[in-house]
């Protein structure tokens, strides 16, 4: 058993092969230059002694190195996630190391390798980053560390951390990124739409001193008389409104862009949007459907509700079947009696597809504030923007432009029937969705 373990851990270093090649050349030359033969023999014996010394340095300690892989509690889908590695050299001599980590199969990395140097009795930490593109369970294999002394003739392989698993959840990093938008003071950053607040709701918040730019119609004359200074009533957005994110899990949502499906973009956006809604005091809920009604979560603004939404979104998968909007309308009419904001994540690639579902969308819009989210095809934009040198390329650009025009036409058709619409690129979905919610809230529509 000990011999088997020794053989499994023993690897010959690259420097040993180079030395043997050099000695072979000397022995070859000694055929014509006989004086080189004794020198070659001495060098061969010296190499054997150094080889044995290197073996003793690396194998005399049964545990020459301690290594560990530290994984976060969960990974964030489509974001960069850090994996930390810790090393501790138990030997008194400095060593060089090469780390080969068995990364989960979903990443399809077969050339992962990290190398470095540790002093005698030294410690070190290093890290690398992974970007998952699918939700689910990711299994890490062994953490292999190859160590060698400064002689470099022998390498010893050590294996650690056998079998670790981490779950990949919807993008909570993206959720935290847009968390600041929940504040009452709207900030304007690059890429964020400036929202003009129209009037105010009837929910009173406080009386404050008048500042230049405040609405003079909000002056509280009784408070002004008492304070001998201009005082105004300040109002806040009406809270506790039910807001549902409805995710279409049909086959139209399986279309991929930059490694992520439209379903994953919708899930990431749903989590970020629900976080903002809850922080603004509204009730957030989630509904998933395709040809059948899948899982749903009633609207709530409890602090623990976001964790329930995260767990629900974690296991969603597309079922590749046509979506039944009539079933969704019936379910909403039966289950959601209070007028709510309904954010529907779906996609229509053809005008005929929209026409089939338009009666149901109009029926939903009569009972709720319906916002339909559709996706721009960024690949078509790339084709339409390319320079054309041949007739076939002109034809492709024309077709791409026609599809893009039809998509904008569908958005206008929905608006014409009183249905709010978001037509966005997949990567800009979260910010555009949140901005639409804040815009509708500022206009007092919810």
UniProtKB/TrEMBL annotation:
* Organism encoding this protein: Belliella pelovolcani
Instruction: Describe the location of the DUF58 domain by residue ranges.
Output: 207-373
> Which ranges does the record mark as transmembrane?
12-33, 39-59
A Pfam family this protein belongs to? Answer: DUF58
Does the UniProt entry include the keyword Membrane?
yes
Q: Does the keyword Transmembrane apply?
A: yes
Q: Which UniProt keywords apply?
A: Membrane, Transmembrane, Transmembrane helix
Q: What is this protein called?
A: Uncharacterized conserved protein, DUF58 family, contains vWF domain
- Which superkingdom, per the lineage? Bacteria
